[in-house]
Amino acid sequence: MFVFPFTYVSVCLVRISVFSSITRATCFSSKTNPHQVFQFNTRKNTTQLQPKKHLLQIQDQKKFGLTEIEGSAYTGTNGLGQTNESPANWENVLEGIRKMMYSIDTTGDREDADIHPPKDRRFAVLASSLLSSQTKEHVTRGATQRLRQNGLLTADALNKADEETIKKQIYPVGFYIRKAGNLKKIADICLTKYDGDIPNSIEELLSLPGVGPKIAHLVMIIAWNNVQGICVDTHVHRISNRLGWVSRPGTKQRTSIPEETRKALERWLPREEWVAINLLLVGFGRTICTPLRPRCGECGVSRFCPSAFKETSSSSSRSNKSQLNKKPESS
């Protein structure tokens, strides 16, 4: 359901508002804030985020630590040295979604990320990303704020705190009991192996308890400004399949898990769009292309979507059929 604090969600963007309270450079989970627009320019093999002139201007890029992101830009391949055929009309679809999202205002209060030491900021990004999994944005924000207010948003503080205290502070995030234990373990690992900092590679992040590919890629982007892959949550997974953008290798079947979707997208999507795609599709997935009863009639790109109106009509048919099959209650 994963942020860079953006003032609006552009076709090349990522909506993440998980860290409203910590860095306001919130996470890529479905908790993104689709209200700031970036595009990538390359200089000396570095991808730099720049505001698109024809969209809303970005305020205080530097304060969110989003001025530069490492990684080579798209040059005719997918950035991995492989050329792959991209889906028809994908650029039109992204442009259309950006226009739809442009009118949606989800700007929230922001906090200056520079007031926190780099190590603490990065650890807070990791902790908040972990809390955000399968949890609504406002719940994650509340839990993060309580940890901060009680001085528990650093590796050292969490390592010293008992699990019961952590549970109370993060409740009611999803799986809060398991997450409290994982936060303790992660704090200990970060102190022991990384001097209180967090790992700076996908492989090392994946070795931490409770950290999967989505969180690992999100943390690399937000905490380290290093794009190693696409952050795929349930919205990106669902919408990519609805649009026919991804399939299982060698088949035309839909991908079954987000990790398959990530790999399929990375085979053809220009690397310059890897950061953007999450924010864009998360905002779209929460407002129009919803999990149940998608609002295809209000969607500006439905003409390009092979799934348009199918899920809406099929759910309606199932509902009507179920009503017809109901036995009348005896009086």
Automatic annotation (TrEMBL):
Catalytic reaction list: 2'-deoxyribonucleotide-(2'-deoxyribose 5'-phosphate)-2'-deoxyribonucleotide-DNA = a 3'-end 2'-deoxyribonucleotide-(2,3-dehydro-2,3-deoxyribose 5'-phosphate)-DNA + a 5'-end 5'-phospho-2'-deoxyribonucleoside-DNA + H(+)
Protein purpose: Bifunctional DNA N-glycosylase with associated apurinic/apyrimidinic (AP) lyase function that catalyzes the first step in base excision repair (BER), the primary repair pathway for the repair of oxidative DNA damage. The DNA N-glycosylase activity releases the damaged DNA base from DNA by cleaving the N-glycosidic bond, leaving an AP site. The AP lyase activity cleaves the phosphodiester bond 3' to the AP site by a beta-elimination. Primarily recognizes and repairs oxidative base damage of pyrimidines.
Family per record: Belongs to the Nth/MutY family.
Region (Disordered): 308-331
Annotated keywords: 4Fe-4S, DNA damage, DNA repair, Endonuclease, Glycosidase, Hydrolase, Iron, Iron-sulfur, Lyase, Metal-binding, Nuclease, Signal, Transit peptide
Statement: the UniProt record of this protein carries the keyword Signal: yes
Signal peptide: 1-25
MF terms in GO: 4 iron, 4 sulfur cluster binding; class I DNA-(apurinic or apyrimidinic site) endonuclease activity; DNA binding; DNA-(apurinic or apyrimidinic site) endonuclease activity; metal ion binding; oxidized pyrimidine nucleobase lesion DNA N-glycosylase activity
Matches recorded under Gene3D superfamilies: Helix-hairpin-Helix base-excision DNA repair enzymes (C-terminal), Hypothetical protein, domain 2
GO annotation, cellular component aspect: chloroplast nucleoid; nucleus
E.C. number(s) listed in UniProt: 3.2.2.-, 4.2.99.18
Source organism (scientific name): Medicago truncatula
Annotated InterPro entries: DNA_glycosylase (IPR011257), Endonuclease-III-like_CS2 (IPR004036), Endonuclease3_FeS-loop_motif (IPR003651), Endouclease-III_FeS-bd_BS (IPR004035), HhH-GPD_domain (IPR003265), HhH_base_excis_C (IPR023170), HhH_motif (IPR000445), NTH1 (IPR030841)
An example Gene Ontology biological process: base-excision repair, AP site formation
Annotated localization: Plastid, Chloroplast stroma, Chloroplast nucleoid
Record protein name field: Endonuclease III homolog
SUPFAM superfamilies named among the record's database cross-references: DNA-glycosylase
Biased composition (Low complexity): 313-322
Start and end residues of each HhH-GPD domain: 131-287
